[in-house]
Amino acid sequence: MAHDAFISYSQPDHDCAFELVAQLEAQDINCWIAPRDIAPSADWAAEIMDAISSVRVMILVFSASSNLSPQVRREVERAVHKQLSILPFRIENVLPSKSLEFFLSAQHWMDAFPPPRQPHYARLCAYLKTQLAAEPASPTHPSTASAHAFDSAHLLHIERQLAGYIGPLAKHLVKTAASRAAGVDDLMARLATELDSESERREFTQRCRMGKPRA
């Protein structure tokens, strides 16, 4: 099932996050939220990354707890990197830490205090329905069946180059991109978008080409 919104929250705000999901889904806004939407045997990090890449908006349940959560910060970083719209839903009167402020300073905030929260949930639902109706859904990715066949040694080489920048997540990213890419150049272009600067993207592409295994 396609999802409209990714719900980012810290564990102490679990009840609020799931109350919010219930309200949104009652309005036909499909949500992705952990751990509900993670398969029992799945790689959590990979599932979360894929979910953030496939939704249309991130709802951040923002509180003193999420403000200090490394996991929430990583999710927000990923969303910003993917140019995903983020809507902080602030359930406590706290200001973002410096690390989060860098990513959220340009975002529209919605305050959800003082209690009760029900009117705030309703306001968020109305806002999201308007925003999602105004923005067409992203086109679907090409299917795996139409993907290019890559040499395993070449894929491993590209994975190692990417890992030099982003670490172990490179394995998952290369596998996902390879299932969708039309060729080697398309694959490298897709993976290069995972890097923050143009100089890193150029360097990554050059390293992939320079070290290509010989047939």
Please outline the major beta sheet.
Answer: 5 strands, parallel
Number of helices: 10
Radius of gyration using CA atoms only: 19 Å
Query: What is the fourth-level CATH superfamily of the largest domain?
Result: Toll/interleukin-1 receptor homology (TIR) domain
Overall average pLDDT: 87
How do the strands of the widest beta sheet line up side by side? 2-1-3-4-5
Element string (H = helix, E = strand): EHEHEHHEHEHHHHH
Oligomeric state of the chains in view: single chain
Topology-level CATH name of the largest domain? Rossmann fold
Share in helix: 40-55%
Précis, in short:
The protein contains 10 helices and 5 strands, in the order E-H-E-H-E-H-H-E-H-E-H-H-H-H-H. With 215 residues, it is an alpha/beta fold. It has a 5-stranded parallel sheet, with helices on both faces.
